[in-house]
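Hi L., both proteins are below.
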Amino acid sequence: MKKLKNKILIGCACMLASSFTGCAPQKQDQKESSWPQAALQNATRQLTLSLDSTGRDGNVRTPVTLTPSGKVYYCSPEDWRSGFYAGSLWYLYELTADTALLNPAIRHTETLESAKNLTWHHDIGFIINCSFGNALRLTGDRRYAEVMTQAARSLCTRFRPAAGVIQSWDVNGNSWQAKRGWKCPVIIDNMMNLELLFEATKLTGDSTFCRVALSHADRTLKEQFRPDGSCFHVVDYDPQDGTVRSRQTAQGYADSSAWSRGQAWAIYGYTVCYRETGRQIYLDQALKTFNFMKNHPHMPADRVPYWDMDAPGIPNEPRDASSATVIASALYEISTFDVPQAEEYRTYADSIMSSLTSPDYTAAPGTNGLFLLMHSVGSIPHNSEIDVPLNYADYYYMEALKRRNDIDKASNK
């Protein structure tokens, strides 16, 4: 174990000399320009250490967060968060080119294969695309394409034609969702699952997947946003006639408030839709929601949002690092498009990542349950996962780091 761990650390350390190259930083810009190297060093240490407790013994486990008692919580493949740890390993493998990370990434991906048949919630996109999607991209193994295609078929079973949307949650039984009186709830988070459908069309040539994604994106665009660019968390539809029954929240402070991670999902989701279609209306919405967040009077100076921008206790409300990572990753992608102010979007993302890489948010090696970032929020209304590490914060942090590295490589050609 110790030899493998040392091999990974030494290999990654060698890569740092050639990664994130660029002009020598000026003194006043040193913090902003040096964070990529620090981020990769920190991620390498923590993720490498985490391999001991997540499956080096053959018993593969997916870490999600810390419990109130400080223990690591591990989830099953059906949990919506199950694909993020594998995805983080894939990004670290990509950033370091260290082959010692390949088998752990494969193991943590393949243990999730049963999730391809999930039909009782919408987050199969998160689960499969973050794990198998990255695996396919980096290995070319066609077995992973088959898993992704089956997962897309499963997701499409949740499409409700009358409303033109993919239903997010089931509302039967004794679940808390059932107690809200909803019939066909759609949450803004669902925009993140559409990328799986776009990929399935590219893999199979079957436009059905893409058409479902576009229908969902278009109806969400029409019904889920406010004039100022912010979005509601939940829109409930009548599955029979497609009409809107209500606009509410589940994880935000109030129905009318701006739940920060919801805004982040919207920015990222419509960025993906623009990338896949070139339709300007999608990019316009992504940027409108981003500008709402950027210009919000409650946006902190370090650009890591409060969990809800309208929470009543600001400035003493918890921050949500996960929202910041999702926004940063989306902005890096936007900065690669042929758009005005592309450099400003990249610079804003840099400032977010610089803040997150500071000791204010980045955990010291060996602490924080071996998660990378501190200070995220799952759901305050449910009194769940408040001011804790979350594996999806780490995933989008790693993705943002990878995208920043790609930008650096392109600029140095």
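That was the first. Here is the second:
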Amino acid sequence: MQFSFIIIGNQQDQLPDIVQKLSLFSNYNWIGTFSYSTDIIAKIVQLKPQLVFIFKNDKETDISLKLISEALSYLSFVPYFILISNTQDFALEAIQNGISDYLMDTDTHSLGMSLFKFEKRFSDTVPQTICIKSYSDYHLIKYKDIVYLKADNNTTDFKLYNNKVITAYKTLKYFEHSLPYNFVRIHKSYIVNIHCISRIHFSKNKCYLDFNEQIPFSDTYRESLEQVLNDNLMS
């Protein structure tokens, strides 16, 4: 199973090292590194990482764990947080605010043990299917079988691998933040499974799928798409 992660911190001397070490774990996809000045909650909502690493070494200048915890309490999906620090001073604060693991050493062995704990907990909770109501029927659809979602006024069409289309009586925005990280909004009317993309022509605003199908792409969503594609499709 593939997992996406982001890193939050201002420790420029440490960030490249942790990214390099995590690259040794092939099922982990790095989708972004952000400083404390970034709107962290907005990035989590936008990118939907399953795992978030936070660097915190200074009580006065570093990020507030309480603010993150309070903001995330309003989301339907909360990622797994691992705090990395060179001191034990923030251990109690981390526990009180829902941080799942605390690392003072980021050697490969310590990281591996922490990731093992994450996978053990996460694999038991992550859904593999979505249930949608269409007319009088309920459909259980595996995420891996969905190619893209298309807005159609106040309904959403799910295009599947088998070319079947199922209409859900919810808006595209309703589904946007409840889908796994590999589903990315690329247009006001489309959310696409990036594993189905064969090519993106940015100058022509076209997204080409594995099935010789084209769907439009908007520059409005270019940044978030590139962040996800960088590690998932370009490596």
